[in-house]
Specification:
The chain has ten helices and 13 strands. The chain has helices spanning 45-54, 67-79, 97-111, 127-141, 146-157, 170-174, 183-189, 211-226, 242-253, 268-274, and strands at 3-8, 23-26, 29-32, 35-38, 61-63, 84-89, 117-121, 162-165, 191-198, 201-209, 233-238, 260-265, 279-282. The strands form three sheets. A six-stranded mixed beta sheet has the order 10-9-8-13-11-12, with helices on both faces. A four-stranded parallel beta sheet has the order 2-1-6-7, sandwiched between helices. Strands 4-3-5 form a three-stranded antiparallel beta sheet, covered by helices on one side. Strand 9 and strand 10 (201-209) form a beta hairpin. The protein is globular, with a radius of gyration of 19 Å.
Length: 283
């Protein structure tokens, strides 16, 4: 194992990476009332979504891993033969995961000062983190040095585009991670905002009357941002909304092309904020 990629549990790895010792996830925790779970392989996603849907007066809370959890992951990767390590976290504007990963890095460097390790603030989430992981893999396969990979991936990261459309924004709004959008208007008037990640923060790009219109506007915005054919990978994650994900894929591919297209189901962390029916697109 020449390298290790450690992602927090917002990173949606491809199914084919399961069991591959180059990759690992560090779980965030999720609380809905007195219901507490870790976002790992033991998570019962349908049960979590039901708990979230049934909660009226409160909202789902998430918590990042402690620095020691990251430290332990770094040490384990080194001991298992990794020559260098990359960690990828949620946007630092959305979670404390990046700060925790950096604190764990400081602990690690006290013992292994010269060991090559880098933590990426993804400035995105979900399949946006996978975009970074895929770029690392691509550059590793080309034989670039650790320093070259870090530099090129940082530049790549700054050009990843992230969009999403959600049926239910309650968790985002109540947790203070998104402001300026009236959840009551969304519910009563069937308004669906098209949201975009800008330097790790969430902004409103468009609005649509109904989900289908919002999805179409999202697709149009993505095509416009890409300005033609691209060698990028189109990635779509969804929360129990495969039909919507396929529809968005078709709308985008009508106008531009990609070297690959990946559709994945969200895991627990992303589903907690996206809720049932949510779709995230990155390129």
């Amino acid at each position: 194992m020449l390298y290790k990629i450690i992602g927090d549990s917002s990173l949606e790895f491809r199914k084919e990476y399961e069991g591959d010792d180059r990759f690992s996830n560090i779980a965030l925790s999720i609380d809905v009332g007195d219901y507490h779970v870790k976002d790992d392989e033991s998570l019962d996603l349908p049960e979590l979504l039901k708990k979230i849907a049934d909660t009226k007066d409160d909202y789902a809370h998430t918590a990042c891993p402690a620095p020691g959890v990251y430290y332990d992951a770094y040490v384990e990767a080194k001991e298992n033969g990794a020559k260098h390590i990359f960690a990828i976290t949620l946007s630092s504007h959305l979670s404390g995961s990046y700060a925790s990963a950096m604190a764990g890095l400081d602990m690690f460097k006290e013992e292994f000062e010269d060991f090559p390790i880098h933590v990426f603030d993804s400035k995105t989430a979900s399949c946006g983190e996978l975009q970074i992981a895929e770029k690392i893999i691509e550059l590793e396969e080309k034989g670039l040095s650790f320093e070259e990979i870090v530099s090129k991936v940082e530049t790549f990261r700054d050009n990843v585009i992230t969009y999403f459309v959600l049926d239910n924004l309650d968790t985002f709004i109540k947790s203070g991670r998104i402001k300026g959008i009236a959840s009551l208007a969304i519910r009563k008037l069937n308004i669906r905002p098209v949201l975009k990640g800008v330097d790790g923060k969430i902004t409103q790009k468009e609005i649509g009357r109904g989900t289908n219109m919002a999805l179409r506007k999202m697709a149009e915005s993505i095509v416009k941002d890409l300005a033609g054919s691209t060698e990028r990978i189109l990635m779509i994650t969804h929360c129990n909304a495969l039909e919507r994900a396929e529809a968005v894929k078709a709308m985008i591919l009508e106008k531009t092309s990609f070297k690959d297209v990946i559709i994945l189901e969200m895991k627990g962390l992303s589903s907690t904020y996206a809720n049932e029916g949510g779709v995230i697109v990155t390129a």
